[in-house]
């Protein structure tokens, strides 16, 4: 249970939260140091947990799942355009890689949540209501179709001109990628990070911090222009997702919207012609 409410003023757990968040942001900014950052955060969490310093351990728990997830490009390799017909393969390397990362990342969240005594409901994963399920499914459909239709025009200022086919057969790996990545990112950012930072930093700081990290993580080398604008836009998306999670008490609608956007993202990424 997240039984500790936020209290204004200073306490050691807030200092630990600041250290954990600082390590995470440093790892985001310097990708080469992400494995070391993940190791430090993991060790800090385990040591505090073994010392029965639960509130302090919670501060490292908030950033631990994302710290581990961010190591995956160094281990599995980064995604790159494959072109058509490779992007139609149900077992395309991009889809399978992201599914593997999602399984590992969600398993880490589950392990840490069990150790911290946090329920699925507290992470925003309670059973969805009928209305939430309907809106989430609608979000998948609207964002997937809308992303394929207007996504290239929206992305062009940041990524340059995007020219790619939209083969119907690519829907299978696109759905695998979308479900894996959309679910993972919502649970890691708006679920684990926001939930476990809230007792130390308060709701609004937790929302803003996870949104900031979300924006920074998406500032990859593929963004060729207007990097600051891109980070600000993605950070705003993260903040809006965090607000929705707090207002709704659930992650299901943000997950649905994210899955739809990532279905379109898969096609735009994987079906572009591979680099010569």
What does this structure look like?
- This protein is 71% helix and 0% strand.
- Helix 1 (12-29) packs parallel to helix 3 (54-61), helix 1 (12-29) packs parallel to helix 9 and helix 8 (171-201) packs antiparallel against helix 9 (203-217).
- It has a domain at 80-270.
- The termini are far apart.
- It has helices at residues 12-29, 34-50, 54-61, 64-69, 72-76, 93-116, 130-159, 171-201, 203-217, 227-248, 252-270.
- With 276 residues, it is mostly helical.
- The protein is built from 11 helices and no strands.
What characteristics describe this protein?
single chain, 276 residues, mainly alpha, 0% strand, globular
Summarize the structure.
The chain is mostly helical and 276 residues long. The chain is built from 11 helices and no strands.
Strand and helix layout:
Blueprint: H1 12-29, H2 34-50, H3 54-61, H4 64-69, H5 72-76, H6 93-116, H7 130-159, H8 171-201, H9 203-217, H10 227-248, H11 252-270
Helix pairs in contact: 1-2, 1-3, 1-9, 2-3, 3-8, 6-8, 7-11, 8-9, 8-10, 8-11, 9-10
Number of H- or I-type helical stretches: 11
Beta-strand segment tally:
0
What is the multimeric organization of the chains shown?
single chain
* Overall pLDDT confidence: 89
Estimated radius of gyration: 19 Å
Distance between the termini: 53 Å
Q: Tell me about the biggest sheet?
A: none
What sort of overall outline do the alpha carbons produce when their principal axes are compared? globular
**Helix and strand succession?**
HHHHHHHHHHH
Helical content band: over 70%
What structural class do helix, strand and pairing data support?
mainly alpha
Low-confidence stretches: none
Task: Determine the strand fraction and express it as a percent band.
Answer: under 5%
């Amino acid at each position: 249970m997240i039984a500790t409410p936020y209290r204004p003023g200073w306490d050691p757990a807030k200092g630990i939260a600041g250290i954990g968040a600082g390590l995470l942001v440093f790892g985001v900014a310097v990708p080469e140091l992400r494995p070391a950052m993940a190791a430090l955060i993991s060790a800090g969490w385990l040591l505090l947990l073994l010392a029965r310093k639960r509130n302090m351990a919670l501060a490292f728990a908030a950033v631990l799942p994302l710290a581990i997830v961010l190591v995956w490009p160094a281990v599995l390799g980064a995604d790159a355009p494959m072109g058509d017909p490779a992007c139609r393969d149900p077992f395309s390397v991009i889809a399978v890689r992201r599914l593997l990362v999602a399984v590992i990342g969600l398993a880490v969240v589950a392990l840490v949540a069990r150790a911290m005594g946090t329920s699925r409901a507290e992470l925003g994963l309670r059973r969805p209501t009928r209305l939430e399920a309907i809106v989430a499914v609608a979000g998948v459909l609207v964002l997937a179709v809308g992303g394929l239709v207007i996504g290239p025009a929206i992305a062009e200022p940041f990524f340059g001109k995007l020219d790619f086919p939209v083969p119907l057969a690519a829907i299978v790996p696109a759905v695998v990628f979308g479900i894996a990545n959309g679910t993972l990112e919502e649970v890691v950012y708006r679920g684990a990070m926001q939930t476990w930072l809230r007792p130390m930093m308060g709701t609004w700081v937790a929302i803003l911090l996870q949104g900031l990290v979300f924006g920074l993580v998406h500032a990859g080398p593929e963004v060729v222009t207007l990097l600051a604008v891109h980070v600000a836009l993605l950070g705003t998306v993260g903040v809006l997702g965090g607000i929705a999670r707090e207002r709704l008490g659930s992650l299901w609608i943000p997950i649905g919207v994210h899955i739809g956007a990532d279905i379109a993202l898969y096609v735009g990424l994987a079906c572009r012609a591979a680099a010569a």
